[in-house]
Amino acid sequence: VKGRRQAVWGWQAFVNADEDGFVRRVSVSPGNRAEVDSLCDLVVGDETALYADSAYIGPRTRALLAHHAMRDQVQRHGVRRRKLTPQERAR
To answer: What pTM did the predictor assign?
Structure first.
């Protein structure tokens, strides 16, 4: 990862936890790797839903959810001319 004037080392940690907070799987990747690339490393296979921020919106995530029969609970984000609907905000 490049900082302002010098190279900076950075890492990202990702966690798969159940509803009780029990950590099931952990993945660590370099800071310059996209978050969505670490998603496959976290899936155990018996999850029923994916709760994640809007960085995980995309066709690869939808394909992974369909393959594992998981519900899509990924947070949506609005854009300038298209605000979130009340249903999307309630998720």
So the answer is: 0.72
* Region at 20 (left for phi over 0; alpha for psi -120 to 50; beta for the rest): alpha
53: which 2 tokens?
């921020």
* Partner residues linked to 29 by β-bridges: 12
Two tokens, residue 86: 């009340």
CA distance 54 to 16: 17
Q: pLDDT tens digit string along 9-55?
A: 789 999 999 989 999 999 999 988 888 888 888 899 899 999 888 88
At residue 26, the 3 state secondary structure works out as strand
Are 18 and 38 within 8 A, CB to CB? no
